[in-house]
Automatic annotation (TrEMBL):
The keyword Transmembrane helix applies. Belongs to the BioY family. This is Biotin transporter. The chain crosses the membrane at residues 51-72, 79-101, 113-137. It comes from Paracoccus aurantius.
Amino acid sequence: MERNVAQIALFAALIAALGLVPKITLAFGVPVTAQSMGVMLAGAVLGAKRGFLSMLLFVILVVIGLPLLAGGRGGLGTLMAPTAGFLIGFPFAAYVTGLFVEHVGIRPNGLRAAIGSVLGGIVVLYAFGVVGMSIGLGKSIIECLGLVTAFVPGDLLKAGITGMLVAAVAKARPQTVSWATQS
């Protein structure tokens, strides 16, 4: 149990550290950050349950006011911004990524993690993000889907990097990625 708690806290801290990478804010107010790769990594390494919990911890810390989002943002106001859907989607994106890597026996492990990252860290995260943007920007879902296409190339790159990192970790320390030795 102590190891699980430590890993959950470690990945919440990883997301915070990735927020230090300078953000690039697009014209419609949603930044390109490295934090979505942390969401992918949390799900791919920790699995569904622990990945979800690590991202839930991160979201709670942000909402109570810690400036952990890219650009030093935090507090209740983050739930009113155009980015709110992405933030709320972090735990669910990690969960779906983790669910995929735990239950789909694709080999090699890096490919499994990359595909899981696309499903959770892009498809699921965008679903939450588009709804949040629609509410925050007062635009239609279709308009917001058009806006998020700017993120697709970078997020595909992040999913690929996640796959490579997970493959390396699974090879070097297979006990860290428990699903890697299954199936």
